[in-house]
Amino acid sequence: MSDTEPIRLKPRRIRVVCWSAAIALVVVFGLVATSLSGPTGDGYGSFQRGDQIAMIGLGIFGALGFLLFTRPRVEADARGVRVRNIIGSYDLPWEVVRGIRFDRGAPWASLELYDDDLLPLVALQAADKELAVDGVRALRRLHQAHLDTLAARAPGH
């Protein structure tokens, strides 16, 4: 991989877990929905078709909630880095990035910005082990290439 080749990073393990959980949730709520029929037990009410549809709908909404956790990704190129977390997206030029951190024990990597903010990179999760480490290294290479370009443009160079 070259120093300026665009990269696209997504978490792997959480995607597998969330898709599996979403499918299981829809199946379970579907099974519950099919078992809802007849009286409620003491004879005062009974389950209707609408109750079954509502249970399936709840399963689908729950599955969509799980799938929100598959949303994170990081895309970067020579111009900057685009971060999409579970909630919120950011498009940052390399000029505002001081460094890329992946502290020991941290659940995910983060961008250290010049205004002393830390922007979490949820797409680079410690659970993905080497995949996350390789992603951080690739981001650091792009960032360093940008710094080298700035140094080459500086007066007196």
From TrEMBL:
<dbReference type="InterPro" id="IPR019692">
    <property type="entry name" value="CFP-6_PH"/>
</dbReference>
<keyword id="KW-0812">Transmembrane</keyword>
<feature type="domain" description="Low molecular weight protein antigen 6 PH">
    <location>
        <begin position="71"/>
        <end position="141"/>
    </location>
</feature>
<feature type="transmembrane region" description="Helical">
    <location>
        <begin position="53"/>
        <end position="70"/>
    </location>
</feature>
<dbReference type="Pfam" id="PF10756">
    <property type="entry name" value="bPH_6"/>
</dbReference>
<keyword id="KW-1133">Transmembrane helix</keyword>
<feature type="transmembrane region" description="Helical">
    <location>
        <begin position="16"/>
        <end position="33"/>
    </location>
</feature>
<protein>
    <submittedName>
        <fullName>PH domain-containing protein</fullName>
    </submittedName>
</protein>
<keyword id="KW-0472">Membrane</keyword>
